[in-house]
Each structure stands twice: as C-alpha cells, then as structure tokens.
Design brief:
With 353 residues, this protein is an alpha/beta fold. The protein folds into 2 domains: 140 residues, Rossmann fold (3-Layer(aba) Sandwich), CATH 3.40.50.2300; 175 residues, 3-Layer(aba) Sandwich (Rossmann fold), CATH 3.40.50. It is 44% helix and 18% strand. The chain has 11 helices and 13 strands. β3, α4 and β4 form a beta-alpha-beta unit.
C-alpha cells in the first residue's frame, strides 16, 4: 500500500509539473508571464526600454520578468533567460538579441508555444522571431551620412568607423554602418559586412579615406579605445561614425586627449548623453529612435496574441514593424530633414510627436 501510494503521489507531482511546463503562468495570481530580455541592464537605452515594457505590462495585466546580458554581446546569459522563460511557462518573450548565438534558443521557445518578439535589433534571418519592432537602422545610418557629407562641403573625408562588434555579425551593427556609408555616397560591397569597402575613393562631396573599423561594444570605454586605435593609424581623422552615443562620448574623450577635432555622428537620440552631447556640440548629428515605443508596442502585441491569437503585422514592404526615426542636429543641412536638439529633448526615446 505504501508503495502504491508513493507511486500515485509521484504521478500527481509529475503531472502537475508537466502541465506547468506546458503553459502555466509564472505568476500565482493568474496573470500571463512575459520575459523582457535586453542586451544589458545598465545602458540607459535599455533601461528606458524596460520602463516602457513595465508600464505596458501593468496596463495589460502582464506579469513581466526582466533579464539581460551581463555585457553587450553576452549571448550565454540571454540563452539562460530564454530557457528560464520556457520553464516558467511564460506566454511570450521580448528580446534585444545579443547575437546569432541566441537563435536556437529562440526557436526552442517558439516550438514551446511562446510568442517571441525582437526589439531594436532584428535577428538574422528576420523570421527567427514572430516579429521585430525596430527603428529602420539602415535609414538611421543613412541620415547621419547624408548630414555628414553636406557638413564637409566638399572637403576630403578622413573617416573612423566605431562599430559595435568585430567578433560577431549583428543586424543593428552592419545596418547603421552601411547606411552611414551609403548616405555619404560611398559605394558598398556586401551590405551585411562592415569593413569591406574600398579604403579610398569618392563620396558625394569629394575624396574619402576610411582609416579604420573598430569595435566599441557600444560602451564609452570601448569608444575611447576604438578612437585611440584609429588615431594611431591616422591622426588626421576629421569624421567619426559611432554606433551609439556612449561610444561617441568615448571617442570624443580620445580626440580631446590627443588634441584633435573631428565631426562626430551617431545613433540613438537619448536624453542623456545624446541630446546634451548634441547641444554642447560634441555630436554634430544623431538619429533618434524610440525604445519606449518599441517596448510598449511589443507588450501590447503579446497581450493581443494571448487574448485572441492575433499576430501583429509588419510595416508594408519591410520584414519588421518600423517604429520611426528623426535626425537631430543644431546644425541643419540643406536637403536633409531634421529636428533640433531642443525638439529631440522633448520626445527622446518616448515616441514621435
């Protein structure tokens, strides 16, 4: 009898455990669980994204669990967070992928029935997730490239490219870099590969020289090191593309330490440091995107899917939903649409007016 009772209890326990893994919410109050997995927990961009997701989750009755990589590019921590979401029985995942190494875990989550949305950074291929909510990162780069070409007014362009990675291929990295070069009027080779363009040639305003492609990991200290490496190759750099504003700040510090001046362009459009760096003249122009909007739309999309199975549609002609971009500068250039830093400060990262 004791043996039979033990077997029965074990079966009940296993049955309950299996049922939970198949679809229970991670929250005892019955709210459906959703995981937000960002690249890092410290970059202000992703802090804003988390705030947007938390606000939307509260409105939609979603139990939100937050996780992140330890650093930008940390795929292992993101894979663990995905596996935890599956084990909790979450209904959906919002993720800013740290690289292609997370793709297999995303597939596992989708196979388990989770609705998976990428934010900010589209995976490659795009259909790795159900949908991506993102800025048009190529267009973001193109705008700062067009602005820079006009700003140089025909002078030779001696260019440093401060990218995100050198050890992995990520869409946000190559799209911004390649968009910038196209905006400059520089011929691209492989649009999904950084650093394979002709090192010298002509841009839309005159002659160009590409000095370097250096990784920054999207961080201020990485931007400084990248700029130092570029200056060691050519001290006459007069135009610096940066993947984001923390990297731009680091690049500016390196230029100042070397007693050099250059026009710096970037992408993100945050309140601090972004808009303040534009207002102070450290950054000449930056493309502003809207992570709070991405996160809010993402949570709403998962909520709709949970309620009625409806999947959000992509923007016509694209393989993601475009959340918009504005070029921000206090030095407008003819033919390049832009808003002022004061205007950008009013709407930074929250959404478009």
């Amino acid at each position: 009898m004791r043996s039979l009772r033990h077997v029965g209890l074990m079966a009940v326990a296993l049955g309950l455990g299996g049922a939970c893994l198949a679809g229970c919410s991670s929250d005892s109050n019955g709210q459906p669980g959703v995981a937000l997995i960002t690249k890092t927990s410290t970059n202000p961009y992703f802090v804003t994204m988390q705030n947007g997701a938390e606000q939307a989750a509260k409105k939609d009755g979603i139990n939100l669990t937050v996780a992140s990589g330890k650093t930008d590019g940390d795929e292992a921590s993101q894979i663990t967070a995905i596996e935890n979401a599956i084990a909790r029985g979450d209904k959906g995942i919002l993720i800013t992928p740290n690289g292609p190494g997370v793709n297999a875990a995303i597939k596992k989550a989708r196979d388990a029935g989770l609705y998976v949305i990428a934010l900010d950074t589209a995976p490659d291929p795009a259909n790795t997730v159900d949908i991506t909510f993102s800025t048009n990162n190529f267009r973001s780069g193109e705008l700062i490239g067009q602005w820079a070409a006009k700003k140089l007014a025909g002078k030779p362009a001696v260019i440093a490219l401060v990218d995100l990675y050198s050890d992995k291929v990520v869409s946000v990295d190559y799209n911004r870099d390649q968009g910038f070069l196209q905006g400059m009027g520089i011929a691209l080779n492989d649009p999904k590969k950084n650093g394979d363009e002709a090192p010298t040639g002509r841009y839309s305003g005159g002659q160009y020289t590409i000095v370097c492609n250096q990784p920054s990991q999207g961080a201020e200290d990485g931007g400084r090191t990248a700029m130092e490496n570029c200056l060691s190759k050519n001290p006459d750099i007069n135009l610096v593309y940066t993947i984001n504003e923390p990297a731009a700040s680091g690049a500016s510090n390196a230029l100042n330490a070397a007693g050099k001046q250059a026009t710096i362009v970037s992408v993100d459009g945050g309140c601090d440091p972004g808009m303040k760096l534009v207002q102070s003249g450290v950054i000449g122009a930056t493309s502003q995107q809207y992570p709070l909007k991405m996160a809010s739309l993402g949570v709403d999309a998962i909520s709709e899917y949970i309620k009625n199975g409806t999947k959000h549609a992509v923007t016509p002609g694209l393989d993601y939903f475009d959340t918009g971009v504005n070029l921000v500068t206090d030095q407008p250039q003819a033919g390049v649409p832009s808003i002022t830093a004061a205007e950008g400060l009013k709407q930074c990262w929250g959404g478009q007016s």
